[in-house]
Amino acid sequence: MKNEHSFFIQKTGILTLSFVFMISCGHKNKSNLNLENQTENKEKQMDTNRYGDDVSFMKNYIELIELTDTSNQSKVAVSAALQGRVMTSSSNGEKGRSYGWINKALFESKEIQEHINVYGGEERFWLGPEGGQYSIFFKKGAEFTLEDWYTPKLIDLEPFDVKNVSATSATFSKKATLKNYSGFQFDMEIEREVAILSKDDIQKELGLQNLSDNMKTVAYQTTNTLKNIGKTDWKKDNGLLSIWLLGMFKHSPNTTIVIPYVQGDEAELGNIVNDSYFGKVPSDRLVVKENAIFFKGDGEYRSKIGLSPMRAKNIAGSYDSANGILTIVKYNKPKNVIDYVNSMWEIQKEPFSGDVINAYNDGAPEPGAKPLGPFYELETSSPALALKSGESGTHIQTTFHIEGDEDTLNPIVKELFGVSINDIKTAFKEVQ
């Protein structure tokens, strides 16, 4: 069911927004696209992907808060109407690349979809679990099918309140109630701060000796807090929530997701990677090597992977070899914590054996269908939050974009991921 919705911004600064996206319709076979035309239009495509262009477009529909560093080159655009979502960012001012994937067709359609409104943005606030007996995406007694799956309005269409804004940060809050599949009610307060980082901050957060002046950089850190404001403690027996952060980024044929992992015996640590979300990922799209996992972010094949708390480190990233873009996601992974919510669409034997890091590559869900984007995602989750009344849990994530040539970026890639840029570029050659 689709409804048309009007867009408006009140003078008080409170924004009401509704819009959305067609999840499935006819899909034009990409193999029929003319490769020569794609090459000729590459420069034109880059023009439409500039930060200033994307921000200007979105301001026709929503109000944006723009954060900037003292150089005025690092920029981050945030939307209160979309739960304090980071929509996009730039490392080179208005004319720099726009790193977030934005679904422009969704904004233009002004249509509300029943199950989910896929509007993009490079870091959004969600809550888990998605599936299972403690799911917040399925009503009590529902079948675990797409027809019965609904994204809670709280994390889909409802705006967050703006608490504080400065040149370099913005804080948002929201009080809400959710019921899970088992019927337990969570009374909560959410607080989310988005802060842009200086170059010195970036260097410190990444633990690097220096950052070359030849690099273009932008980074932001989000501090996400969930508080139990109800009278009932949150316990495993009733189900728990997790803070779930997901970033939609622009796919390309040259983009590879890189995730280092904890090495060790599978008998002790479990499988290195979980690739069972949408069926086993083909070997020409997912490669596990000694130091890292390599996963294609080309937007050509719908697939998802995850790492358990026993295997995950506190970092994941991607590298676009054609444009020299290194994207890094770091988060606060607590030590010796293994209870993470399980989002598999089934009644689960182990509802707290979920993944910490996830990566998703979009593509057509079935032959002839249209992909959601396409795009690719990097995701992290907090542990399952067993909060007593009045207690809070916090999940912190930092996203970095660094542009530079291979010689400049290679030392950073080696230090952070334990592999070289050449390792990334050749990861799939042996299996082709």
Q: What keywords describe this structure?
A:
five-stranded antiparallel beta sheet, alpha+beta, 8 helices, 432 residues
Q: What's the helix and strand layout?
A:
Layout lengths: L2 E2 L3 E2 L5 E2 L18 H6 L1 H7 L2 H8 L6 E4 L6 E5 L5 E6 L13 H6 L1 E2 L11 E5 L32 E5 L3 E11 L5 E12 L2 H8 L9 E13 L13 E8 L5 E6 L5 H4 L16 E3 L3 E5 L6 E5 L7 E6 L4 E7 L25 E5 L14 E6 L10 E12 L2 H12 L3 H5 L7
Antiparallel strand pairs: 1-7, 2-3, 4-5, 5-6, 8-13, 9-10, 10-11, 11-12, 12-22, 13-21, 14-16, 14-18, 15-16, 17-20, 18-19, 19-22, 20-21
Query: Structural class, please?
Result: alpha+beta
User: How many helical stretches?
Assistant: 8
The largest sheet has its strands arranged as: 9-10-11-12-22-19-18-14-16-15
Strand percentage lies at 25-35%
Total strands: 22
**Backbone CA Rg:** 21 Å
Q: Round the mean pLDDT to the nearest integer and report it.
A: 89
Summarize the biggest pleated sheet: 10 strands, antiparallel
- Contiguous low-pLDDT stretches (5 residues minimum) are 1-47
Q: Percent helix among the residues?
A: 10-25%
Distance between the termini: 43 Å
Indicate the overall shape.
globular
SSE topology string: EEEHHHEEEHEEEEEHEEEHEEEEEEEEHH
Oligomer: single chain
